[in-house]
Design brief:
65 residues, 0% strand, mainly alpha, 1 helix
Length: 65
Amino acid sequence: MAHTVENTNDFTRDWVSSSRFLFYVKLACIVAFLVGGSFKLWQHRYKGKPKVQVNESSLYEPKYK
């Protein structure tokens, strides 16, 4: 005969604790995703208006030679 010991701390048996644990895992993943995405957006943000060479013929008031 095989003797088994009932595990009261089993993850699959306690529905309330497991659902609470999975909720906090999902919440932590969402927060980590938002923080990581925000950091990447901040890292690659627009850093200002660059000085660009524009042909004089393509200005709003063009200058021709």
